[in-house]
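Posting this for the archive.
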Amino acid sequence: MATRPDHHADVRDHLPIDEAFERVAVAFARSLRSAGLVVPVDATVTFADALSRVGLSSPSATFWAGRAVFVRRPEDIAIYRAVFGAFFGGLAAGMMPAVAVARTAVLDVDDTNGDDDERSHQRDDDRHDDVQAVRFSRHEVLRARDFAEYDANDRADAARLLRALRVDPPQRPSRRRATSPRHRGRPDLRASVARSLRTDGEIIDRRYRRRAQRPRRLVLLLDVSGSMEAYAREFLRFVHIAVIGRRSVEAFALGTRLTRMTRDLANRDPDAALAAAAVRVVDWSGGTRLGDTLAAFNAEWGVRGIARGATVVVLSDGWDRGNPERLACEMERLHRVAHRVVWVNPLKASPGYVPLAQGMAAALPFIDEFVEGHSVAALERVVTAIARDDKGTPRA
């Protein structure tokens, strides 16, 4: 099993340099296999190539080159060290890395309800020096988890996380005027004269007025078709938070028909609001005709005033059984009257996602911002997208 270094020197003296490294690599791999390590043939070839680059003059470089190639599991480290020492032998003191101290990893999950200090200190006292505690927050894991992977407990915890969101629509100039905090805008004669009474009628502190700001109207269109079943429940909670958080927020369900949910979701009790919305939407988890329902929205509500100058948010995966040309036509009408159109698609987070669904492909040219919506963290980014006020150009 052990071949001395002088034997390697003889091999290098009589063989071409590449072949010498190959023989050393093959012999070392054979020794590792005899000791119980699984050594594929390609690992031997890789180690021979590594030896041709680092050579055999540096024990440390040789050691780490072999470890990078042959060690695949933590339990293989001790075997590799023993075989390396016996095979190559005569390593300079201190060149071999120190043996790592074995530690036991203990998973410590943060309690969402909070632990008292006494229990926390008790857990710390029970741990020995060789025990490594690893902490993670369940909420952090839950924030990044896809809604489609939720169980009943996850949905209850996610509901608490979603209630902490605050959906703030962007501001727009109002027709009314308000006092300007800076010396700019239209002069406010009444306020300036009133302030001059403190200085014997001399107008020193001039006051100004500017256009006041008010929130833009926010319109949320939620796809409740069967393909959205894994995400519609959390999306509905998100819509409810938006409705109760601000005025001038309208909510509609898109399925086989258009359903207005604003009044049903105005109840601050989330369970009562969601139950009322579920009763109102009779085509929940049914088919979807985005073109037809958008046409109904544009005709009854959108073009007539609700969507004009508003931020419109469509929460849908883009799957549509209707005519894609009609969907494109209605999206163009909506984009023409709305200030911004944001499309939230839970499938966008999938690796390699391409909007190939005919509905999504038809709508994409008339969207100002296309965002993910598969998790709590993604919905937090949706809140940021809603708050932006920049009017994007239609997508090509």
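The chain has four domains: 5-88, 104-136, 177-214, 216-387. Residues 1-17, 90-107, 114-128, 132-136 have pLDDT under 50 and may be disordered.
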